[in-house]
Amino acid sequence: MTTKKIIYHCYGGAHSSVTAAAIHLGQLRTDKIPTAQELMSLALFDRQTNDGHGQLHFFGFDEWGNQVYSVGCRSMGQTMVKILRGVARMLGAADELVFVDTLHCVSLKMRLGGYLSRRWGLITLGRPLVIQGTREAFPQIVELVREVKHKVAG
Description:
4-stranded mixed sheet; alpha/beta
């Protein structure tokens, strides 16, 4: 079986995609809601900058040797997927890429908190909201990751 490159993507690349990648790699337990400290200990959680949008961030290898990435694509998510799929087809690697849109897991609190924290730099206002929203959305993100892992496990 060919290993995959799993790319979790969302708008800003700072919350839902980072959380999904961490769940995928076992950095967050799936049987309990993470604490604020556990979320803040994740690479890039509420730390992504505008310069980081569009850059693939490697998080590690899963138990099957698949590479796990996250990326923030702003409002270009589906366009980015089409472009990368096309390039992968040209290179004969189309079956290796697995794109996972985490945006549908994002709650209003995550959107508002992320906007305040990342866009406006109002971290003291935005971060508590985005953490609370991520904790509330966590079961949905866990379920998404379970589906992805089932798919790539074969």
